[in-house]
């Protein structure tokens, strides 16, 4: 996101995600942003850093792959962000 936006009357800071509760909501301001939608996913999700899966083991494996530089490079990106130092999900 870039610019200044309000989601349902509350200012949305750059680098944060706004969540609309229900099928309708109001976004105001001038800027660029992405809208992601759809039916809620069934079951539990494990989220750590920018990795998401329905199983913690897959998140841990993806973290190891990132650390070992086994992900393909992002086109047009030259910076590589290291893994955070926070703990990985255990279960």
Helix content: 10-25%
The profile of the biggest β sheet is: 3 strands, antiparallel
What's the total number of strands? 5
Shape: extended
> What is the string of SSEs from the N terminus onward?
EEEEEH
Rounded to the nearest angstrom, the distance between the terminal CA atoms is 32 Å
- Record the strand order, biggest sheet: 2-1-3
Uncertain regions: pLDDT < 50 for 5+ in a row? none
> What count of structural domains?
2
User: What is the number of helices?
Assistant: 1
Rg, Cα atoms, Å = 17 Å
pLDDT averaged residue by residue: 85
Proportion of β residues?
15-25%
- What is the structural class? alpha+beta
Describe what you observe in this structure.
There is one protein chain. The chain is α+β, with helices and mostly antiparallel strands. The chain folds into two domains: 2-32, no CATH class; 41-91, no CATH class. It contains one helix and five strands; from the N terminus they run βββββα. It has a three-stranded antiparallel beta sheet with strand order 2-1-3, with no helix packed on it. The radius of gyration is 17 Å and the shape is extended. The mean pLDDT is 85.
Summarize the entry for a quick read.
This protein has one helix spanning 56-67; strands spanning 2-7, 10-12, 27-32, 46-48, 51-53. By secondary structure, the protein is of the alpha+beta class.
Task: List descriptors.
two-stranded antiparallel ribbon; 2 domains; extended; 13% helix; 91 residues; single chain; 5 strands; alpha+beta; 23% strand
């Amino acid at each position: 996101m870039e610019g200044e936006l309000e989601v349902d009357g509350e200012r949305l800071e750059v680098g944060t995600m706004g969540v609309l509760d229900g099928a309708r909501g109001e976004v105001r301001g001038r800027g660029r942003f992405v809208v992601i939608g759809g039916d809620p996913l069934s079951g539990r999700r494990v989220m750590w850093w920018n990795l998401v899966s329905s199983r913690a083991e897959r998140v841990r494996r993806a973290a190891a792959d990132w650390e070992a530089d086994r992900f393909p490079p992002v086109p047009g990106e030259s910076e590589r962000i290291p893994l955070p130092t926070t703990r990985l999900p255990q279960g």
